[in-house]
Amino acid sequence: MPTPAAPLTLNDHELATARDRFERLLSALDTVLFGQRPLLELVVIGVAARGHILLEGLPGLGKTELVKGLAHALGLDARRVQFTPDLLPGDITGNPVLQEVDGRRAFVFQRGPIFANILLADEINRASPKTQSALLEAMQERRVTAGGDTHALPEPFFVLATQNPIELEGTYPLPEAQLDRFLFKIEVRRNPPEVLERIVLAREIGVSPEVSPVMSAAEFGELLAWTRRVHVPESVAGYIARLVHATHPGESAASAGVRYGASPRAALALAAAAKARGLRHGRPHASLEDVQAAAQPVLAHRILLDHSARLDGATPAQVVAKLLAEVPVQTTPLPGSLSLAAAKVR
């Protein structure tokens, strides 16, 4: 078996430039969503990892404005689809339309709003599961098949979706196959009084905040390419593998009450998120701390509990927290990395 080629290491200039671009993007998003820095960190790490992101929270918390601000900051083409119970799959992907072509009538594919760099799927869980499933191929393969023809989506392509808690009226649970395609599921929490005061002083109802581009599409593409070049050491890959394996029933004490654990796609998602977080902090490699910081938003929505565990009040987030405490890690620090014993997860 041939030996795999050594990864092309990022140099100091590339690392410094990447970190500066992350900071500029975060500063721009700080003007959109006040007092939510940890959430913004996850969002920029998610897009750098080329992942789709699901934001869950009550209406009015700024989820939609955050996604719109991200599109403006990156200078990318963005389209918004308001998901409703009567929305059809073709309203998202597009439909064949009968037209005159070279003197004869033929069906011509009219592209839907999904043909953009960023698709804002607003209140995605208000559409039926059939309509939600229209995104499955696009999110995984980054293409759309209609009428027997395949149409490639623009590069880069992200789905940034918002959803209301399932307890609200008129919502449908997202299919497991679609949840698994989201890199992160992030909960958007309500603001404390001091942040609400800042919102009242700085905003007007019905007026969206203005966000200027902080990097060109070419610069963002360069950032995505650098993220893919971040090295994943064997010790980190082994930790990811043990963590994902332990989510399955019978594989750990923490998995008691779990019906289905995380898929291999979750392991790849965790590695991608760790690489993006490593680059965000100016490192050419992913670390154990990066994996731990990304574990909750990557794994929690991919863990399904059985009925009895849910009745007992258990949550997937609690399972992930127990896994992080149970699954062993390598305590020897990597060069340029903080020791797990000596530093808190950033």
Can you walk me through this structure?
The chain has 346 residues and is of the alpha/beta class. It folds into 2 domains: 10-85 and 116-126 and 135-229, Rossmann fold; 231-346, Helicase, Ruva Protein, domain 3 (Orthogonal Bundle). Helices cover 40% and strands 16% of the residues. It is built from 14 helices and 11 strands. The chain has helices spanning 12-30, 37-48, 63-74, 90-93, 129-132, 136-141, 176-179, 193-202, 217-228, 234-245, 264-280, 288-299, 307-311, 316-326; strands at residues 52-56, 78-82, 94-101, 104-111, 118-122, 143-146, 149-152, 158-163, 182-187, 258-260, 304-305. The strands form 4 sheets. It has a 5-stranded parallel β-sheet with strand order 2-5-8-1-9. Strands 3-4 form a two-stranded antiparallel ribbon. It has a two-stranded antiparallel sheet with strand order 6-7. α1 (12-30) crosses α2, α10 (234-245) packs across α11 and α12 packs antiparallel against α14 (316-326). The longest helix has 19 residues, at 12-30. The relative contact order is 0.14.
Structural class: alpha/beta
**How many domains would you count in the coordinates?**
2
What spatial order of strands do you see in the largest sheet?
Answer: 2-5-8-1-9
Q: Per CATH, which architecture of the largest domain?
A: 3-Layer(aba) Sandwich
Radius of gyration over all CA atoms, rounded = 21 Å
Mean pLDDT: 86
The share of residues in helices is 40-55%
